[in-house]
Structures are given as structure tokens and as C-alpha cells.
Design brief:
single chain, 5-stranded mixed beta sheet, 6% strand, rod-shaped
Length: 253
């Protein structure tokens, strides 16, 4: 392929812009702010689930406590009625009186057991409520952190997008200065070689694969016409000759 040396040199500028676009694309995909925001979002979702479970535990504990308190009230009310009956003097039968006294004593024991259950239920309710409060506080803290991380992520992404748009405009301008055939060949090689289609020949070394050319290869490049598009024998990328290529010395006879 033939192309003026100036057009070949322009390929280096185009490659630099394409490499910068690749770098910006990678940077956009690997923003630490995005990773931080994603991790905080996971924590936030996990906390939301834990909060629902904690709210359920609080509700269950409160229902158990109300049930235990209602049982105590019921036993206490029955014991009070029996005490009033016994103290009213209406029961004259010794057997009935003894039975009533026995029931009052039994109700007293039952009331003590139920009051113990109430205390236990209250402790469970307090523990569940404390855990719920802790989770709510943690959620607020994580939510605040997530909001801040999202703002940082969006700012960083916007800056990258601005850079990409600027570089894209520069690329379009440079691409217009390159002959269509050479540009098409460049694009084809970019697809084949991980986005790097062209590299300078610097001090006898291809900057695409970082390998030094042999004496024979250097002599072949030196002998090629200025408008000849040369390629590296190792990586097959286009090699652009520059003032730093190391071709000034004549081949030994």
C-alpha cells in the first residue's frame, strides 16, 4: 500500500486519539466511585431486608407482650372477683369457702407465672426495638454515603464523557485528513490487533510489539520508498518512520 509520509504520520495521531478513547472507556467502566456506589447499594438493599425482618420481630414481640398482659389482667380480674365473693360473706358453706380459697391461691400462682412471662415478653420487645433502631440508624448512614458516592460517580462519569466527546471530535478531524484507503486499512488492523494498528519505529524497535528489528529488517525498511506503508514482521502492525527511527545509518556493504 502507498501513502504519503505525512498521511502515515497522521496515523500516529489517530492511533493516539483511539488509544485515549480506549483508556477513557476503560476508566468509565472501572470508576472507583461506581464500585463504591454499587457496594453501598448492596448494603442498602441488605439493610432494607433486615429492617423488614426486624419490624416483623418487633410486631411479633409486641403482640406476645399484649397477649401476656391480657392473660394477667384476666387472671387478676377473676382473682379479684373471687376475693370479693369470699369477703362479702355470701358463702356460708365451709366446703365452698375452702374451694374458693384454693382457687384464689391457684390464680395467684398463675398470675405470678404470667407476670414473669410479661417481663420476658417486655425484654424481647425492647431488644427487638433496639435492633430495629440500630438498623434504621445504619440505613440512614449508608443511605447518606450512597447518595454522596452516586454524586461523585456521576461527576466523574460526566468529566469522562466530556473528555470522550472532545477526543472524538479531534479524532473525526484527524480521520478526515487521512486517505480513505489507508484509513480503512488502519481500521481493519485495529480490529485484528486489540485496537493498536499503527506504531512508530523508534531507534530500530517497533513500539507496537516492543521488539527490535533485525539488521536485515531495518535495511528493508530503510530501502523502502517514503510512501510505502511498511509493517512490522513480528506484530504485523503498520510501522511509521520518524526522525527517531534509527534509519539514518547506511547499511553495511
Amino acid at each position: 500500500m502507498k501513502a504519503e509520509s505525512a498521511a502515515q504520520a497522521r496515523l500516529l495521531d489517530l492511533q493516539g486519539l483511539d488509544t485515549e478513547l480506549q483508556r477513557l472507556g476503560h476508566k468509565a467502566k472501572t470508576l472507583p466511585e461506581a464500585a463504591e456506589a454499587a457496594e453501598l447499594k448492596k448494603r442498602l438493599d441488605r439493610l432494607e431486608s433486615e429492617l423488614i425482618a426486624a419490624q416483623t420481630r418487633v410486631g411479633d414481640a409486641e403482640r406476645r407482650q399484649r397477649k401476656a398482659e391480657a392473660d394477667v389482667d384476666q387472671v387478676r380480674a377473676r382473682a379479684d372477683r373471687n376475693t370479693k365473693r369470699m369477703e362479702s360473706g355470701q358463702i356460708t358453706s365451709a366446703k365452698d369457702l375452702q374451694s374458693l380459697q384454693s382457687e384464689i391461691a391457684s390464680l395467684g400462682r398463675r398470675q405470678a407465672e404470667l407476670e414473669e412471662a410479661v417481663l420476658e415478653a417486655m425484654e424481647h420487645t425492647e431488644e427487638a426495638a433496639a435492633e430495629l433502631a440500630r438498623l434504621k440508624a445504619e440505613r440512614e448512614e449508608v443511605l447518606s454515603g450512597h447518595t454522596a458516592a452516586v454524586a461523585r460517580r456521576d461527576t466523574a462519569a460526566a468529566e469522562i464523557q466530556w473528555d470522550r466527546e472532545r477526543v472524538t471530535r479531534d479524532r473525526e478531524r484527524v480521520a478526515q485528513e487521512i486517505p480513505e484507503g489507508l484509513l480503512a486499512f488502519y481500521e481493519k488492523l485495529r480490529d485484528q490487533y486489540d485496537g493498536v494498528a499503527v506504531a512508530p519505529l523508534r531507534y530500530g524497535r517497533c513500539e507496537g510489539c516492543k521488539l527490535a528489528l533485525s539488521t536485515v529488517e531495518l535495511n528493508e525498511v530503510r530501502a523502502a520508498a517514503e510512501d510505502e506503508v511498511v509493517r512490522c514482521e513480528n506484530c504485523r502492525r503498520i510501522m511509521v518512520r520518524t526522525a527517531e527511527s534509527g534509519l539514518a545509518a547506511k547499511a553495511e556493504q
